[in-house]
Amino acid sequence: MDGVLLLRPGRDPNPPHGGTLVNLQVSSERAAELKAAARDFISLDLNPRQLCDLEMLATGAFSPLTGFMGRADYEQVCSSMRLADGTLWPVPVTLNVPLATAERLAAGQKVALRDIEGTMIAVLTVAEIWRPDKVREAEALYGTSKPTHPEANYLLNVAGEACVAGTIEVVELSARHDFLSFRGAPAALRAAFQAAGTHLVLAYQTHKAMHRAHVEFTRNIARAHNAHLLIQGVVGKKDLGETTHYARARALRAVLDRYPPDGARLNLLDLSTRQCGPRATLWHAIINKNYGCTHFVVGHDHHDLGEYADGAPVYGRFQGLELAARHEHELGVRLVPMRNLIYEEDHPEHFLVGRTSQRHVSVPDGHSPFGRPERGHEIAQWFSYPAVLRQIVPPRQQQGITLFFTGLSGSGKSTVAQVLVAKLMEVSSRPVTLLDGDVVRKHLSSELGFSREHRDLNILRLGYVSSLIASHGGIVICAPIAPYAQTRAQVRGMIEQHGIFIEVYIATPISMCETRDRKGLYARARAGLIKNFTGVSDPYEAPTAAEIAIDTSNISPQQAADDILAYLFAGGLIEPPADAADAGHVAPEAQAAPRTQRPEAEPRPAR
Ligand code: PPS
Fold first, then answer.
1. Is 455 in the pocket of ligand 1 (CB under 6 A)?
2. Domain limits of the chain?
3. Is the CATH number of domain 5-170 3.10.400.10?
């Protein structure tokens, strides 16, 4: 690690991995030729991960790879972190497809690789179709083949069973519309460094925001090495409509003025990381080398996953650094280990290495000792910058909220939801969307019936629409029966990535629902005229840990809506208007403690 690299100013001080920067993009004439011929090609729609990989291959960020791997490279990479020709390369980059797709392909055939919108990105001329040993790959890469590791789970349960390899001709890279000034391909960045006479470049790669300690560390270490800093913000593998990366990119952009003029540059990296701990460290060092970096910052838990649910660490501390350090000479990149930093009250602007203090900041981890900033814990100003926090922790009142009602037919879901919409509109100017069960079935799920499969599909559609609204800071009220606990949990998972999820169990007993029977459905169900009727001839799994539970047997819909409103006020999720009580906008009881099960609503990162 401390070995000195021989860098000769004037020449290329750090050639790409394998010696040549790969460029798979073809001339405009060839692109036109391929587009014209594409009508007869079989198409493969790539998922977000595959699109990221293709872009990295296309621009040379994965040099010396010139395409998705064939079996020979794959096997060597799994067993010894080397390509078949012996070049150091730790991570398989394969194009996995379902067996049924592989069976339609043959060597020599041309395949159109398309993005989510159907645009042809590249043409692959098939050379090899082969089957990977996914269990062996998972063990080699992740140290486990258990699905508790999310990447092992993806590999074993989502990725296709066959792989396709061959020559790739890139016709047109996926269009980008955001942060264009922070998106440079390796060749462009190399040229920019060369034009500026920058021979030493220190890469700091992160998929999180940078706080004061990260900035202090990188600024000092870049100065100590007399190097320019390249902040590589990983924003790859996002789903359509996903907005998290905007907040992350804005947060990274917000620290740029903390560096000397021309001392640091931000680049957004569409890399689909693999969370493979030690191998990821080595891989990222290679990728950054391809971007022209001579130095690479490595944390003790570089791109780690933390712990499994039982508390066992996924990877050992420092393993990545140790692995990369063993190959440092061959890599030709100087590794710069991160250190834990100290905050000293006497020096509020500085984090000094190697001293003791109560306020100890673990830089690689980067989270506040007071809790994860993304979770909305109060953050001390010494930990981060207001401009950064504004991006990743917006005020609770601006975070998207989904109120997910569940309950039997006739329990009062729709009525309470309608009253709640009216009350929310009275007190807040935030947009409120009501997705009632009946209405959703009419417009979104008109072809669905009431089998378990169809009910689940219906609820997942509802969850998807809600997650989109929540990701833009809206308030959504859903009011389906949603009888299955597992499906409700799945929807919670989808939405909590984007905002706050509050389950509202309308716990009115079936006897009361049946007495009301406004639609006459229970009578018909009892008479056997409606099959699979929830509560009568189909199950309803009552929530056991809903944030709010309300039995409408003995309270009015207005009181029920006030209870929910009170929950939102108590959690600081909605700001009560200053004049609310005086002007009679909010019933006085709505300002009192709500009759709820879990009064503490957990704030979520906003996007
Ligand atoms: S689910 O299970 O969440 O997909 O159901 P949901 O979309 O909320 O639709 C429930 C409304 O459909 C009417 N309906 C039935 N409900 C339950 N079981 C059966 N078999 C059934 N057939 C029709 C009923 O009017 C429900 O509306 P609400 O407002 O709940 O009474």
1. yes
2. 5-170, 180-392, 396-591
3. yes
